[in-house]
Amino acid sequence: MQLSAQTSRAKSRTDASFRQPRRVKAKPARDYRQKYWSEISNFMKQASSVGDSRILYQIIRQVSGKSSTLYDSARDVNGDFILDNSAKVDCWREHIKHLLNPEFQSSLACAVSCDFVSECGVADAMQKLRNKKASGGDGKPAEICKSCVDSLVPWLHEVIGQAWRDGKAERAS
User: Fold this and answer.
1) How many structural domains is the chain composed of?
2) Which residues of the chain are under the pLDDT cut of 50?
3) 81 φ, ψ (degrees, to nearest 5)
């Protein structure tokens, strides 16, 4: 019981008998840390004043604690790293070529619903128009369309149906 009381007292920062040794140990550590950062800042100032950005970035990398990794690495088809720069360029060229020129399978059918939109769908779309925005090139605000949905839906549904059947929309004059 006496040992645990001493341990808790030792851990306590308010106990005067342990406060002094902590201060004695903390001061040199604080001084060393301050000296270290002072030296680092002086090295950085010197590198900056000379214009040596390479050393400046090396110091920044050193104190930031980030590990350096190989960012420009590329792997071959076996999973091995490619070390030769010309081989890396060829590897990237093939990769980009494959991305930009995909081989499409013409036998695949697209699963697109070709059902014609219903009048309810037209009415829902009209209600979802944003206020204070023009819904088309005519510049009429959406509130006008929303105010007379019941009378516009049959007419608009017919216009959309005609454009759907003909495959083209006539330009309104």
Assistant:
1) 3
2) none
3) -70, 140
